From TrEMBL, chains A, B:
Alphabetical UniProt keywords: DNA-binding
Domain HTH tetR-type: 17-77
Keyword Magnesium: no
Protein name: TetR family transcriptional regulator
Pfam families for this protein: TetR_C_3, TetR_N
Record InterPro entries: Homeodomain-like_sf, HTH-type_TetR-like_transc_reg, HTH_TetR, Tet_transcr_reg_TetR-rel_C_sf, Tscrpt_reg_YcdC_C
Length: 214, 214
DNA sequence: GTAATGTTTTACCAACCGGTCAAATTATCA
DNA sequence: TGATAATTTGACCGGTTGGTAAAACATTAC
């Protein structure tokens, strides 16, 4: 008996902590490469090195694992945009935003793919977050960009599509990694590809937005 | 008896033609929003308005449907890049490439998502196409871009990352449609969003690549 | 019209899926 | 140490899944 399944808000054993972490890590592997429906508990359990019932002792359902992963991911995912500072100057802010997003694609590709999978399938599990907090945050930062434009610090452009294009270009290196590697070939697909991408994107956006050339 | 299942290269009945088309259309719906593993034959059959065994009379396996869709899609998908003309001038070529890719995101979002799903999951079914024809095509066009740069018609930049960034920004409007709509809100998420995107992207790339301002 | 061919349906199967249960095992702590 | 609570396991269940078999039904060609 004893129903500590997935923690009762308090009192988490060392084992609980450890196993839950292992499950989430394994689940991130599986969900990010198969989507929610395509993933099976057995796959996750095997990747985590435990039996299915044992896994279900820590997370009651497949959805519970998925939900936990999405919550964690969303937080870190939006952090770089949070950092966007209205008082900073556009060049620094945009340049470092691109850089941070690119670093996230490099260091957390599975999280990026988890998110991509979720959105691709219509965001059934994070509809509220998308329509609520995420939209609010983007609205806020779009306003910041607009003030920069009004102050003549930035070429006139649609701030929403600017944000979309930064998301798209940076996340591409995580979500379409297989394609990027294949196209670049063995010589150029090493870790250096992120440096190359950073150089290209910074130039593109700096010049494209009428900021001093890169 | 009679084993015409999925066509014996010749002699296709009107009914065959018609039903296969209906199946592929339904399958595109399902695969593009659930991925290969997440899709079920039953879902496809229901969407196509026929029984599962009936569907399996036309396509022997789930994989056969998926393979057919991917083949068709890849052809149309790469066509715009094919059109990239070395003798044209960079401004026209790049501008119309962006425009065509954006139109494809608008008119064939399901195809875009089918492709995105496949790449996200590691491209298990189109590995060969990616490493072969696709890479070759990109290599060829990257060379075209390089000659433009050498001729001083374009700012110096990495042609591969240029192509990636066009792919990423345009396909974003199909693959991340749910997010785009949510962020833009009801007022600005109408069909006009593609016009806005086109305007923004053309400006970004034209200026970013050192071509006359948009 | 009838025979051959093409199409659809009903019934079915074995494997897999998410999840439960109760018993067995292990860790914790007084 | 022993009692108690935490963890792990194997056996199991009902529903779903990809796919088959065979017969009923429809269409076409002669």
């Amino acid at each position: 008996m004893t129903v500590p399944r997935a923690a009762k808000t308090q009192r988490r054993t060392r084992i609980q902590e450890e196993k839950e972490e292992r499950i989430l890590d394994a689940a991130l592997d599986v969900f990010s490469s198969s989507g929610f429906r395509g993933a099976t508990i057995d796959q996750i359990a095997e990747a985590a090195g435990m039996s299915k019932p044992n896994l279900l002792y820590y997370f009651r359902t497949k959805e519970a694992i998925h939900r936990t992963l999405l919550e964690r991911m969303l937080f870190t995912w939006l952090e770089p945009l949070q950092a966007f500072d209205a008082d900073g100057d556009p060049e620094t802010e945009i340049r470092s935003y691109i850089r941070r997003k690119l670093e996230m694609s490099r260091d957390f590709p599975r999280e990026s793919r988890l998110f991509a999978n979720e959105i691709l399938q219509g965001a059934p599990h994070i509809e509220d977050e998308i329509n609520g907090p995420l939209k609010a945050l983007v609205d806020e930062k779009a306003e910041v960009i607009r003030t920069w434009i009004k102050a003549g610090k930035l070429a006139r452009c649609d701030p929403y599509h600017l944000i979309f294009s930064i998301w798209a270009t940076t996340q591409h290196y995580a979500d379409f990694d297989v394609q990027v590697r294949a196209v670049l070939g063995e010589n150029r697909a090493g870790e250096g590809r992120f440096e190359d991408a950073a150089r290209f994107l910074e130039q593109l956006f700096m010049r494209g937005l009428g900021i001093s050339a890169a």
